[in-house]
Specification:
By secondary structure, this protein is mostly beta strands. It is built from 4 helices and 13 strands. A 5-stranded mixed sheet has the order 4-3-10-11-13, with no helix packed on it. The chain has a 4-stranded mixed sheet with strand order 5-2-1-12, with no helix packed on it. Strands 6-7-8-9 form a 4-stranded antiparallel sheet, covered by helices on one side. A hairpin with a 6-residue loop joins strand 3 and strand 4. The radius of gyration is 17 Å and the shape is globular.
Length: 225
C-alpha cells in the first residue's frame, strides 16, 4: 500500500486503502484537541484515489485539476532525513520521549491540560495516561514515547488508513493523517521513511512538503465555509 506524489499534482492513493474524514474534538478550554470524530467513511476504493495537494480544489478532499490552472509548485522541501536523525531525546519521569519538532502539524493533542512536556515530568497516574495518549496519537508522529529501560519505541498497532482532518476548533481544514505504515513515495521516486503515523500537507503551502507543518491554519483557502 502506498501514496504516490505526482509532480506539481495530487497524491495518488492506491486502491484498497480505507479513506475517512474526521473532525477534531476540542477540550473544555478549546485550546487542545482530545480526539477525532468520524464524519464520513469513503471506504476502500476499487481504483486509485486522487487527493488534492494544492489546497484549491473545489471538490476537496479530491483533486479537480486546479493545480494545473494555478501553476502549482509542489516541490518537495523535506530534507528526507529519517525521524531519529532529527529527534531530540527528552528525559521523563515514567517514560522518555523523542521529539522531532519539524514534523509538528499543529494538531494540539499535546496542548491538553498541563501539556505533554510538563506531563512527561510527572509521576501522577493521570499525567502518565495523558503522555501515553499523546505519544500514541500525535498524528504527525512528532512525539514518540520510549521505554526508559530498553529505549524501545512504544507504538500502537494501527491498521493502514487515511484520515482527512477537519480542525473544527480552529475552523480550518487540516492535514492528511496517514496511519499504519503506508509508504509515501515522492515525485522523483524517493521512498520516504515508512512510519506508523505521519501527516501530509494538503494546503500546498507547507515549508516541509510533503509533510504538514501547520501552515494550513494561516491559509484562507483552507478556512471552513
Amino acid at each position: 500500500m502506498k501514496i504516490t506524489i505526482t509532480k506539481n499534482g495530487p497524491y495518488v492513493v492506491d486502491a484498497g486503502i480505507p479513506l475517512k474524514e474526521v473532525d477534531s474534538v476540542a477540550d473544555q478550554e478549546g485550546r487542545g484537541v482530545l480526539t477525532y470524530q468520524e464524519r464520513a467513511d469513503h471506504g476502500k476504493a476499487d481504483t486509485n484515489t486522487y487527493l488534492c495537494r494544492c489546497g484549491h480544489s473545489q471538490n476537496k478532499p479530491f483533486c479537480d485539476g486546479h493545480h494545473a490552472k494555478l501553476g502549482f509548485d509542489g516541490t518537495e522541501t523535506n530534507d528526507k532525513k529519517p525521524y531519529d536523525a532529527k529527534a531530540e531525546h527528552i528525559r521523563g519521569a515514567i517514560y522518555d520521549a523523542l521529539d522531532n519538532q519539524a514534523l509538528c502539524a499543529a494538531a494540539r493533542i499535546c496542548d491538553v491540560g498541563t501539556g505533554f512536556l510538563n506531563a512527561l515530568e510527572s509521576t501522577h497516574e493521570a499525567d502518565k495516561q495523558y503522555t501515553e495518549h499523546v505519544g500514541c496519537n500525535c498524528p504527525s508522529g512528532r512525539f514518540t514515547l520510549l521505554d526508559k529501560q530498553t529505549h524501545q519505541k512504544l507504538e500502537p498497532k494501527l491498521d493502514p488508513e487515511i484520515q482527512l482532518i477537519t480542525d473544527i476548533p480552529a475552523e480550518h481544514l487540516g492535514p492528511i493523517y496517514v496511519k499504519g505504515g503506508i509508504q509515501v513515495t515522492g515525485a522523483d521516486g524517493f521512498e520516504y521513511e515508512t512510519r506508523n503515523r505521519v501527516t501530509l500537507c494538503r494546503c500546498g503551502e507547507s515549508n516541509n512538503r510533503p509533510f504538514c507543518d501547520g501552515t494550513h491554519l494561516d491559509c484562507k483557502h483552507m478556512e471552513l465555509k
